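Need residues for this backbone.
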């Protein structure tokens, strides 16, 4: 823990996010009781007053009665004034960088100020998730604090896994000047620290759907900007107002919106299977469950194989985005990752494209976990996925990347039926023992797809190179 008296310019407020809803403000029983609790000194004084009161009745001494009332009421009055007379502390928590990356340090800075008269030194502790251990302790005001500017405190964290961590609140042990009463208090609400997954850079390879020595996607721009029949479609509930095409609306007499596939480059749909059955084997040979923090909500489940699959989805998506594709990242039920992840970006429903595509994908995948127990039936999920793929992939230049767990031969046939006859399909299967997937991989390759089986120890670069050799 370090303290400073001036704020460096590189620290910024962590951006707020509407999805990060606090389920319930952390509060102990003592925090809910406004009068606080007596300390050992306060209880001793109160007990002395009770004994004096008993003696006053037994001996009939009025002067002893006055002393007993003084001893009884003094600690109670101290506890009452502790709630209303203690100076209020204001806490501002910042992160540098604002979003962390797994296994990389992030600096947490606290700026604490007070309103009203400054009292005695107050011990403070910042609350950290269990993964980080006990929170750092410090006292307010700091020894090098400047009058009127508050106190600055700084410490470092290193998230080991991705997710949304709840850092805070700062807790104080507030006491009166005589030490008769004390109560713990939460000075602020938890702050959301997003830990992003690491994105691995991939080398250009001749995977299907790309052209040229630099792997640039072929252009698919419309040459007839007045072709409203092709460029637009009727307005549907949920469409953003920004997509309304006013010239086509005036011509048709009804609301028309630009088609989502009107773009200069084709689309790459990356389907990341997040079903529990695919990545969390039960019974004999069950794999350990990993927890992905979800701020103040219950954590999501994950596994080593699913972490590899998510890492692959991010790496492949970032590579394709850099080569000119618009990335549509969905799960096994055809839902956009932005819609099912607590860390989804505000541009839900939009493609990941442009210079910030990788950063947006990292944030969307940060809190993604396996589906909750009691999900929909597999046949219903396949029908929903088939409809989603039909809606999303309507261009000759589109390509599809399937990232699966450990499918059986029957499930492989089901995937072939759902996807249909498409030549630009890449499949990555993640299994504990990839040798068990040879029949499944053979089925995919016989259909003309590029397919490879990996295990959690395989590097993404090795799997990417194997896919490149199949083109």
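Answer:
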């Amino acid at each position: 823990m370090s303290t400073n008296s001036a704020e460096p310019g590189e620290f910024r407020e962590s951006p707020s996010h509407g999805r990060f809803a606090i389920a319930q403000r952390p509060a102990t029983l003592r925090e809910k009781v406004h009068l606080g609790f007596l300390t050992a000194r306060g209880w001793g004084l109160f007990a002395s007053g009770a004994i004096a009161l008993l003696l006053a009745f037994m001996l009939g001494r009025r002067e002893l009665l006055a002393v007993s009332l003084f001893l009884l009421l003094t600690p109670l009055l101290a506890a009452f004034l502790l709630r209303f007379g203690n100076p209020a502390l204001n806490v501002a928590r910042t992160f540098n960088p604002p979003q962390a990356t797994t296994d990389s340090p992030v600096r947490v800075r606290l700026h604490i100020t007070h309103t009203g008269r400054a009292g005695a030194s107050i011990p403070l502790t910042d609350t950290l998730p269990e993964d980080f251990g006990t929170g750092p302790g410090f006292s307010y005001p700091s020894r090098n604090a400047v009058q009127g500017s508050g106190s600055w405190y700084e410490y470092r964290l290193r998230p080991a896994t991705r997710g949304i961590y709840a850092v805070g609140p700062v807790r104080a042990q507030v006491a009166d000047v005589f030490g008769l009463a004390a109560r713990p208090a939460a000075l602020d609400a938890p702050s959301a620290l997003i830990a992003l997954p690491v994105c691995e850079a991939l080398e250009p390879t001749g995977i299907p759907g790309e052209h040229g020595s630099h792997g640039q996607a072929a252009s698919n721009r419309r040459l007839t900007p007045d072709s409203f029949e092709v460029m637009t479609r009727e307005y549907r509930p949920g469409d953003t107002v920004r997509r309304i095409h006013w010239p086509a609306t005036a011509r048709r007499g009804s609301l028309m919106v630009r088609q989502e596939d009107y773009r200069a480059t084709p689309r790459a749909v990356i389907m990341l299977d997040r079903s529990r059955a695919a990545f969390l084997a039960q019974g004999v040979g069950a794999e350990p469950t990993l927890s992905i923090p979800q701020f103040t909500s219950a954590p999501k489940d994950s596994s080593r194989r699913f972490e590899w699959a998510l890492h692959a989805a991010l790496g492949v998506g970032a590579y394709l985005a850099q080569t000119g594709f618009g990335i549509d990242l969905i799960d096994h039920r055809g839902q956009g990752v932005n819609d099912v992840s607590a860390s989804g970006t505000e541009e839900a429903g939009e493609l990941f494209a442009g210079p910030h595509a990788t950063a947006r994908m990292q944030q969307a995948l940060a809190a993604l976990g396996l589906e909750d127990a009691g999900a929909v039936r597999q046949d219903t999920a396949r029908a929903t996925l088939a409809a989603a793929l039909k809606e999303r992939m309507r261009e000759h230049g589109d390509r599809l990347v399937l990232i699966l767990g450990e499918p059986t031969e029957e499930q492989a046939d089901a995937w072939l039926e759902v996807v249909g006859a498409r030549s630009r399909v890449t499949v990555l299967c993640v299994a504990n023992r990839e040798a068990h997937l040879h029949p499944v991989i053979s089925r995919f390759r016989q259909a003309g797809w590029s397919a490879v089986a990996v295990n959690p120890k395989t590097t993404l670069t090795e799997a990417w190179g194997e896919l490149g050799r199949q083109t």
